[in-house]
Design a protein that fits this description.
The complex is a heterodimer of chains A (576) and B (417). Chain A is mainly α and 576 residues long. Chain A is built from 21 helices and no strands. In chain B, 73% of the residues lie in helices and 0% in strands. The chains are: A mainly alpha (576), B mainly alpha (417). At the A-B interface, α7, α8, α9 and α16 of A face α6, α8, α9, α10 and α16 of B.
Chain lengths: 576, 417
């Protein structure tokens, strides 16, 4: 992470937070008794979940005939919901992995919740392949197993099986990634807790003590997981797209499906992150951590991915015409002007037109607009999957088998149930873990806190008003501002004064007792004052002379360790 | 050394490269068949390849500006200068378009007026595959790319000369142009790829194709950036570009080589699995008659960078990074060769045998310049590369090397991976 921050960047943490404030603000929601909105939300979610479970039980008891699937439309709301949820899961890994690799600091405000959302969304998604087989007790047919079906394991060549592997891998890595991030934060919660709670969090944090070794391993692991997760983000939705595109169904068999599904998934995932986080930041008062700058960045990602999806829609449409393949042409004609025209226009409007509002900075930074549009996009992405699945299947090659499909209450109920499940899990998560990554937010405080950058900065940023390209001049400017910064946070920081020649542990203790705790403070001290401190301190400091200490301290403060070493070679016991 | 001097020596070397190119093209023309298939296909191959690289440079600056990236600021003049080749690309591709217009060449099956009427599939595409769309579409679209790139560049240079722009007004204006550029490039690059490249196989189509070509251009652009920076550093320029910047470029090369492979695989897998004859013919031809290149494409552009750049230190050593950049650059040039030649040859064979039936049998015995690039192809490539570098270096010499007033310049100078 670069220590130098451009003056054009806006802060990502407002309110002049200290490290302690951050801990307090982010951990306390897990320590308070649940608020009324939380309780109401939880009861509502769990009721929806209960209804969903009832519908699932109904399906399994009475059979898949309780759904309106028919001989033509074999996939309906079930697979639509499956793809929708998987897609929503994508933003978590994108934020945590890809944005980590790109060193995007704003990810720290939302990555924790986004990763949690990924895991919950994948759980919701995984439900559907399980129940849409109808006979849930033989769901293990999904897995290739070497017995009754002979030595060939024939379903290995089915994308549906690849999907199973892809999603379970994705789920595992996402879970590891999320948990890795949680370990130091659980330790923070533990350190503030008492009794049983302390024991539980101690167990959850694997005895984390925050030593340098722990952090080093933690960072290495985060990077490794980010490296693994990045191709996984692409692979999961790619393979979901293979479920369709490997077939020869017009409208499904198109080569752009893999990257376009991935872009669409990120698009919908970010929309869901916004939907959740805009509520969370309001309810938990996290406006200073999930700022409008975060919202704007996410809206930009939505605009970009929404437009990529738009390019893909138009490419499909164009190439259907260009191909000269009449079935392909019909598939698109049918989508746009057939009996399901409303879902196609819903999709086009919600996914391609609505994100274009985000060209306006005002709308990008408006919470109300963003919340509204994020829901519109969630709906649009559901329509997209419905268009691809039901609309395309309903009118296939043979007009005599054309059909129409609309869901029964059971199918709708299961979908509502997954929404209940999602929010139930999310609400529990908000109670047991810091919803914003405490340690990661702290890691950007010195570069992106509003006391360090932006218009309200007290401590001027590095190289703020210097634009000389002369390197040494510029180094100097940086050193100047480092000096200011160090001086400004002088109360908060202590330096190891023993690094200076002539200062041992006892002298250091005496100096610190007298308030000289940092290189900066020492550098600004008068040698006579220092002598007074020594004279009045506990102990015999006859042999110590402070004459060179301010000079040494200045070099140490500016990070000029080489020069300091040179000077120390010349000094004799700290004396010139 | 903040000002690049385009020395006479360098100019001479580049002019020699261009002469090599001209001689190669001349010889190609002379030794060619009667419709100069090899000459024109080589021309299209290189013109589209280098135009695309300059588009990607301009596009990527726009991406970086929009994404508030800081690390690249120290060497952004290199990308700006790459993008200035777009005006030359415009002329090169317009010549191709004039060729369609006036029937100078028979690269495109659809440009044959008889085929446009009699061939059922082609006649369905004439609304898009026609001489007007090709020529004027190219001029307008590439012209727009150039306009937006040059606006960003001139603002960037103006920013350099204005030390009192404390509010970064110029950078904020650049953001506007960058934001406009992104969707325009997104939509129009696909249209151009379909016109220029996909339509050499006039019957065939693939929705992914435009993005595949774009990824190939992008990787080539990163390779050329790495090589240019290494050259400039070796000549004593841009010493501020540190191993950290090169490491990041190496990461881009690594990541986008994988991304290119991902697109290659997605397209191949779906066509193979679907097994529809109209689609598989594309790979069938390449697999049957271009087998060495078919495999070389994957080895050079995927396996090689993947295994070499996987380690951290190979991205931080200029020797290994430069080597990969050079090899992969050639790899993507070969990729374009493989995209263009088979379709062009098919069209030429049909034309020369005066048969317009798609199933017509024709001789596909091994021929240098068709199944494999020969010396003339290499010479032509050297010529185009010389031209590209000439434009690049002269643009580079017109402004200071480090954009000192870029708002992110300090972040970039202190960049750490």
């Amino acid at each position: 992470m670069s220590a130098v921050v451009s003056p054009i960047r806006d802060p990502l943490i407002y309110g002049h937070k200290s490290y302690h404030d951050i801990t307090e603000d982010l951990v306390s929601p897990t320590e308070r008794t649940p608020s009324a909105p939380w309780v109401i939300g939880f009861i509502l979610s769990i009721s929806l979940l209960g209804f969903g479970l009832f519908c699932i039980a109904w399906t399994i008891w009475h059979g898949i005939g309780t759904w309106n699937l028919n001989r033509t439309v074999g996939w309906g709301w079930d697979i639509t919901n499956f793809v929708w949820w998987i897609g929503i899961g994508h933003a978590g890994t994108l934020i945590s992995a890809i944005l980590l690799l790109f060193r995007q600091k704003w990810r720290t405000g939302v990555n924790r919740a986004a990763e949690a959302m990924t895991i919950f969304a994948v759980i919701c998604a995984a439900l559907f392949p399980g129940i849409h087989v109808g006979r849930a007790w033989v769901v293990f047919y999904f897995f290739p197993y070497p017995n009754t079906r002979g030595p060939l394991w024939p379903n290995f060549n089915s994308p549906l099986l690849w999907d199973l592997f892809a999603i379970s891998t994705y789920f595992t890595v996402s879970l590891l990634f999320w948990y890795t991030g949680l370990v130091p934060d659980f330790a923070t919660v533990r350190d503030r807790a008492k009794g049983m709670r302390k024991k539980v969090y101690n167990f959850l944090s694997f005895g984390w003590v925050g030593s340098a070794k722990h952090w080093q391993r933690w960072e290495a692991l985060s990077l490794v997981l980010a490296g693994i997760a990045t191709p996984l983000v692409l692979s999961v939705h790619t393979i979901v797209s293979f479920d369709f595109a490997t077939s020869v169904i017009p409208g499904w068999h198109t080569t752009i499906f893999p990257p376009y599904f991935v872009a669409g998934a990120i698009f919908s995932g970010f929309a869901m992150v916004l939907t959740l986080m805009l509520v969370v930041r309001k309810v938990l008062h996290l406006e200073e951590y999930i700022t409008l700058n975060h919202v704007e960045s996410m809206n930009k990602v939505i605009l970009a991915t929404g437009s990529i999806v738009g390019v893909a829609y138009l490419t499909e449409l164009f190439v259907a015409w260009y191909s000269g393949y009449v079935y392909e042409q019909f598939a698109f004609f049918n989508r746009a002007l057939g009996p399901y025209w409303w879902s196609y226009f819903g999709m086009m409007f919600c996914n391609v037109i609505s994100p274009q509002f985000f060209w306006s900075r005002k709308i990008r930074r408006s919470v109300a607009w963003t919340f509204f549009l994020s829901i519109v996009i969630n709906i649009g992405m559901w329509f997209e999957r419905f268009v691809i699945i039901a609309t395309t299947l309903a009118r296939d090659y043979i007009p005599s088998s054309w059909s129409y499909y609309s869901p029964t209450w059971v199918e709708i109920g299961i979908f509502i149930g997954t929404i209940g499940l999602f929010f139930t899990l999310f609400l529990i998560f908000c109670r047991v873990a810091p919803v914003v990554a405490v340690a990661e937010v702290k890691s950007i405080l010195k570069s992106s806190g509003d006391q360090y950058c932006g218009p309200d900065a007290i401590h001027h940023g590095h190289g703020h008003d210097d634009h000389g390209h002369d390197h040494s001049h510029e180094e100097h400017a940086v050193a100047e501002s480092v000096k200011e910064e160090v001086a400004a946070v002088v109360e908060a920081v202590e330096d190891d004064l023993k690094k200076l020649e002539g200062i041992g542990p006892k002298v250091e203790a005496a100096l610190k007792k007298a308030g000289v705790k940092t290189f900066a403070a020492l550098a600004g001290s008068d040698t006579n004052d220092l002598q007074t401190i020594l004279d009045e301190g506990d102990g015999n400091f006859m042999g110590n002379s402070p004459e060179s200490w301010p000079h040494q301290a200045r070099l140490a403060m500016e990070g000029k360790w080489d020069e300091l070493e040179k000077l120390q070679d010349e000094l004799q016991g700290g004396k010139y | 050394m903040n000002q690049f001097t385009f020395t006479g020596r360098l100019k001479t070397s580049l002019i020699i490269m261009m002469v090599v190119g001209l001689v190669s093209m001349g010889l190609t023309w002379i030794w060619d068949d009667e419709i100069h298939t090899r000459f024109w296909s080589n021309y299209l191959h290189n013109a589209s390849f280098f135009t695309g690289i300059s588009l990607m440079a301009g596009f990527f600056i726009a991406v970086c500006i929009t994404a508030w990236a800081g690390w690249y600021a120290v060497f952004k003049r290199v990308w700006e200068s790459f993008s200035m080749f777009l005006i030359v690309g415009l002329v090169l591709m317009a010549i191709m378009g004039l060729g369609v217009y006036f029937g100078w060449h028979h690269i495109y099956h659809w440009a044959d007026p008889v085929a446009a009427v009699e061939d059922k599939i082609i006649s369905g595409k004439t609304g898009f595959l026609n001489k007007n769309w090709y020529l004027f579409g190219t001029i307008v679209i590439v012209g727009t790319w150039y306009f937006l790139s040059s606006r960003i560049r001139s603002l960037s240079i103006a920013e350099d000369n204005d030390d009192n722009d404390t509010d970064f007004a110029k950078h904020r204006r650049m953001r506007l142009y960058a934001a406009i550029f992104l969707p325009i490039a997104g939509f129009t690059s696909a249209a151009m790829v379909w016109q220029w490249i996909m339509s050499v196989d006039s019957h065939w189509y693939s929705t992914l194709f435009a993005w595949y070509c774009g990824a190939s251009w992008f990787v080539s652009m990163i390779c050329l950036t790495i090589m240019s920076l290494l050259y400039l550093r070796a000549k004593g320029y841009l010493q501020q570009v540190s191993v950290e910047h090169m490491h990041d470029l190496g990461k881009f090369l690594f990541a986008f080589s994988i991304f290119w492979t991902y697109l290659w695989f997605s397209q191949y897998m779906l066509i193979w699995y679907g097994n529809v004859g109209e689609e598989t013919i594309y790979y069938r031809t390449r697999f049957d008659h271009f087998k060495p290149l078919f495999y070389a494409n994957l080895v050079i552009n995927f396996l090689f960078p993947f295994f070499v750049l996987m380690r951290n230190d190979t991205k931080r050593k200029f020797g290994s990074l430069g080597l990969v950049a050079g090899v992969v650059f050639i790899g993507h040039w070969l990729d374009y060769f493989l995209m263009i030649k088979p379709g062009v040859m098919h069209t030429a064979h049909e034309h020369l045998s005066h048969g317009h039936d798609a199933g017509g049998h024709h001789d596909m015995s091994f021929q240098l310049g068709v199944q494999m690039p020969g010396f003339l192809e290499i010479g032509t490539m050297i010529g185009f590369l010389g031209l590209f570098l000439f434009v690049f270096f002269s643009a580079l010499s017109k402004a200071s090397l480090v954009a000192k007033n870029d708002p992110y310049i300090h972040e970039s100078l202190h960049h750490h991976v």
